Amino acid sequence: GAVVSQHPSWVICKSGTSVKIECRSLDFQATTMFWYRQFPKQSLMLMATSNEGSKATYEQGVEKDKFLINHASLTLSTLTVTSAHPEDSSFYICSAREQGGNEQYFGPGTRLTVT
Amino acid sequence: DQQVKQNSPSLSVQEGRISILNCDYTNSMFDYFLWYKKYPAEGPTFLISISSIKDKNEDGRFTVFLNKSAKHLSLHIVPSQPGDSAVYFCAASVGSQGNLIFGKGTKLSVKP
After folding, report:
1. Facing B103 at nearest CB: one of A43, A95, A105
2. Burial A26-48 (b: 16+ CB within 10 A, else e)
3. CB within 8 Å: A44 and B89
4. Among A25, A96, A103, B69, which residue has the fewest nearby CB atoms (within 10 Å)?
5. A42 contacts in chain B (CB < 8 Å)
């Protein structure tokens, strides 16, 4: 149980284009989903927290107009990287937590490369 | 400024011996601590957690020790197995549902 999937697992896009990454909780309802970014040899950095049906809360330094997060249902959250630049190339990981739960269950991550 | 620090980027241990991974934190408000294991190109998987009301939590081969006065925690794996080879992340939060703050991870290699 407690499986979280991400799609795509990797994506290459051209600078200036937008990319959408999906995060799904497969066997539980996730009232809260989290989006992280990890650069090589660095820690996972929380980008934003989203609760189903409400606007995401972004961490300091994360541009909400660049990283659009939608959590429209209890099993799906999407992260859209708009007008991607090479410096946005990173490993993006989502996690999900069910209502009343403590644990965050992580997806397998999405490797984004912007050329 | 990093609030959660894992000062050893890597650790190599012989199969069957004990692996000790260390983690330090600076924020005294943290009261919930977790260890995650991560394989390449995969998301982290939860291993074990500890609340600040305890100083030890054990689950099979994995034991986490918490020293609040030193703001230090450690993960002991015994006996270590080659399948334990992965990157281990320490994370801390304020409350069990608070946002997780991760360390940079320690890459453990267990040699047969």
Report:
1. A43
2. eebebbbbbbbbbeeeebbbbbb
3. yes
4. B69
5. 104
Can you tell me the distance from the alpha carbon of B66 to that of B74, in angstroms, rounded to the nearest whole number?
Answer: 7
**Selected residue of A26, A102, A105, A111 to mutate for chain B interface (largest B Cβ count, 10 A):** A102
Alpha-carbon distance B85 to B39, whole Å? 8
- For residues B72 and B55, the answer to whether their CB atoms sit within 8 Å is no
pLDDT, one tens digit per residue, over B25-62 is: 999 999 999 999 999 878 899 999 999 999 999 999 99
CB B36 within 8 A of CB B47: yes
Residue A37, token pair as written in the block: 């970014």
pLDDT digits (tens, 9 = 90+) for A20-72: 999 999 999 998 999 999 988 888 999 999 988 888 999 999 999 999 999 88
The radius of gyration of chain B's CA atoms, rounded to the nearest angstrom, is 13
